[in-house]
Design brief:
The complex is a heterodimer. Chain A is α/β, with parallel strands linked by helices. Chain A has one domain: Rossmann fold. Chain A has 8 helices and 9 strands. In chain A, the strands form 2 sheets. Chain A has a 6-stranded mixed sheet with strand order 5-6-7-3-8-9, with helices on both faces. In chain A, strands 2-1-4 form a 3-stranded antiparallel sheet, with no helix packed on it. By secondary structure, chain B is mainly alpha-helical. Chain B has one domain. The chains are: A alpha/beta, B mainly alpha.
Chain lengths: 224, 219
């Protein structure tokens, strides 16, 4: 199994509080890896560490790719409340992919998932502050999935706050990312998201020093 | 391309909140007439307009974007942060130019004698003033705390040049608005140059060492 990223004996302390004692894990290429764990166990901080915005106090992170090849959709990313959805999509798409040429909004929406495209079309003149949490989240996931030229896409609880139908859109978007030869690493609390993943990493167990990585390919049903 | 992209959307966002722009001009204009400032204080109030636009529209804008996760997710490298910062400088310089023009025009319309050469002098040192404003990034504090600190600092910056206590004289050397005015009202440049260069360098360091992790987050 070719690895994209490897964490060896990583320790993280924030203001004398130990978050992780000794984390060892591998993120493989062309797979969906899912991170699970109790609330407050440190999933978001582990993702920050993998994305390169936090550094471990001890241990090493070996990356088979550069930081610029990692796309990171954090849980708290907010849309600018003074811009409309159309402006936000045009702005963020070109930030995610600087080589993207300026094109009309309708052309951009053709690359979106059909249902997300409908939502974006309906909300295009509305400011982000007037849209629901789920609508904004779905738009962000679609933007990162469609326009990011990254090799590894990290998402922190992307399905939190999404309805079951939106979560199925999310899974279809993940399939699209995988078909492009990219890898996905995300955290979740939903069993529906865990079952079809290639790799499940349980942070509760990692912190206890029991297991490193559990392969659950047997559950593979939706992700291609 | 990234600079023009940021520039377009930064300006669009600034245009949609005109109250802060109006207040930035209204405050020095009101001060000028209420406290009967002298004519050579026009440049000082002009410096106040330029610096407040840079600190609120530049440094605080960066802090707000750090807290919203924008820097963490969409500005992944030092280079992209540099582009973002240059776009902020250009956008805020355009706003500062408009602000100064409106301020001078207001004074002119109320039959105040104003020196339009000051207008160009004010903008000449604007890059230094922008970089000095970035010193706010040294303080890893939440947005609300930084807002309070900057509001109090701005009030002190506008008061201390008119105080005669020794402590005020010392504080003036840390006052970017006072330093800015000195460049075109004093011939004793050496001390001002040293302080300005030092504060400008520290501003560049603050930008280069900026931690993209939100303070209001858990880490």
């Amino acid at each position: 199994m070719h690895s994209l990223l490897r964490l060896e004996n990583c320790q993280l302390r924030i203001k004398n509080t130990r978050i992780f004692s000794s984390i060892n894990l591998v993120i493989p290429k062309h797979k969906v890896s899912v991170l699970v764990g109790s609330n407050g166990v440190g999933k978001s901080m582990l993702m920050d560490m993998i994305a390169g915005t936090l550094s471990p106090n001890e241990g090493t992170i070996s990356r088979g790719l550069s930081i610029s090849e990692i796309g990171y959709l954090s849980q708290g990313l907010e849309l600018p409340y003074l811009l409309t959805i159309q402006e936000t999509i045009q702005y963020y798409a070109r930030l995610l992919n600087p080589s993207l040429r300026k094109s009309c909004f309708q052309e951009m929406l053709k690359c979106f998932h059909p249902q997300v495209s409908d939502i974006a079309h309906k909300l295009k003149t509305k400011r982000a502050s007037k849209c629901s949490f789920g609508e904004k989240k779905l738009l962000l996931i679609n933007l990162f999935a469609t326009y990011s030229p990254f090799k590894l896409l990290i998402m922190d609880e992307p399905t939190a706050g999404l309805s079951p139908s939106s979560r199925s859109i999310y899974r279809e978007l993940c399939d699209q990312v995988l078909m492009e030869g990219k890898s996905i690493f995300f955290s979740t609390h939903h069993m529906d998201d865990i079952k079809p993943s290639d790799i499940v990493i349980n942070l509760d167990e990692l912190n206890d020093g029991k297991a490193l990585v559990k392969s659950q390919a047997v559950f593979k049903t939706t992700y291609k | 391309m990234p600079i023009s992209l940021h520039l377009k959307y930064i300006l669009l966002q600034q245009l949609r909140q005109p109250i802060s722009f109006i207040w930035t001009i209204a405050l020095p204009t009101t001060l000028y007439f209420t406290f009967q400032y002298q004519k050579n204080d026009v440049a000082f109030l002009g410096s106040y307009i330029v610096f407040s636009i840079y600190i609120y529209g530049g440094a605080l804008y960066i802090i707000a974007h750090r807290e919203s996760g924008f820097l963490k997710c969409l500005i992944p490298s030092r280079r992209s942060l540099l582009y973002f910062s240059v776009a902020l400088y250009i956008a805020n310089t355009l706003i500062a130019l408009t602000g100064i023009s409106v301020f001078y025009l207001l004074l002119y319309c109320i039959n105040e004698e104003v020196l339009f050469t000051q207008f160009l002098q004010l903008m000449f040192l604007s890059p230094a003033l922008y970089l000095i404003s970035l010193n706010a990034l040294h303080f890893r504090k939440a947005l609300s705390e930084m807002h309070t600190v900057i509001n109090i600092s701005m009030m002190l910056f506008i008061i201390t040049p008119f105080l005669h206590q020794p402590i005020a004289q010392v504080l003036n050397y840390l006052n970017p608005i006072y330093l800015h005015r000195l460049f075109f009202s004093s011939s004793e440049y050496s001390a001002h140059w040293v302080t300005t260069l030092l504060m400008t360098s520290l501003g560049i360091i603050a930008l280069l060492r900026l931690d993209r992790q939100p303070v209001e987050g858990r880490a």
